Amino acid sequence: MLTRDFLINADCKTAFGAIEESLLWSAEQRAASLAATLACRPDAGSVWIFGYGSLMWNPALEYRETCTGTLPGWHRAFCLRLTAGRGSACQPGRMLALKEGGRTTGVAYRLPDETLEDELMLLWKREMITGCYMPTWCKLELDDGRTVNALVFIMDPRHPLFEPDTRAQIIAPLIAKASGPLGTNAQYLFSLDQELRKLGMHDDCLDDLVGKVRTLLGENSQPGLA
């Protein structure tokens, strides 16, 4: 399982599995990306992070406040070819990202001002190992009525790992077979489905996909979160 200690101590070249050297970002590239993102910070208020995948149940971040919310204009899609973590180059899976259109519900975290850059560097080490996302400041509608600017990791459609075909019949066999140092791709999908249900949220794109993957694996039960 991916933990805070794992992220702090991880050597990105090996900890997540074999990553193609041409895709792997250096610590300097991640730092430059973070600096550029902070330079575009829309206001001097607290920094919020929006989690729509594993950040919902496993943030591995220090935070001061959390709240569920909705991100307008973007929807979940398993459009990232997964060759490390829960997949491999020889048996790639699919990882979650965001594509334009629709709405996405998830969990927002307000980071501590005093250790902001340390927390963000850890987050960049987790999310930007290959630079596949575009860290973007978005208006987020919190369920308590507030609207905040939040950092959201959106799929970069120019990235070599971007996969436009996200039909369930195409990606279910990939997710059912893929695994890596962090576990199976299917476990990630099931954990996402379970967390959304626990929070009283629903995502239409998951129903058919979860059913197809369970059928391929011969499973009927719902495994625990990972």
Instruction: Provide the residue-averaged pLDDT.
Output: 94
Helix content: 25-40%
- Could you spell the SSE succession in H and E letters? HHEEEHEEHEEHH
Beta-strand portion reads 25-35%
Number of helices: 6
Structural class: alpha+beta
Low-confidence stretches: none
The total beta strand count reads 7
Q: How can the largest sheet be summarized?
A: 5 strands, mixed, barrel
Cα gyration radius (Å): 17 Å
Distance between the termini: 6 Å
How do the strands line up in the largest sheet?
A: 1-3-2-4-5
Q: How does the overall form come out from the CA principal axes?
A: globular
Question: How would you explain this protein's 3D organization?
Answer:
This protein has 226 residues and is α+β, with helices and mostly antiparallel strands. 31% of the residues lie in helices and 28% in strands. The strands form 2 sheets. Strands 1-3-2-4-5 form a 5-stranded mixed β-barrel. A two-stranded antiparallel ribbon has the order 6-7. Strand 6 (179-180) and strand 7 form a beta hairpin. Helix 2 (27-39) crosses helix 3 (116-127) and helix 5 (185-198) packs across helix 6 (204-217). The radius of gyration is 17 Å and the shape is globular. It comes from Klebsiella electrica. Keywords: Lyase.
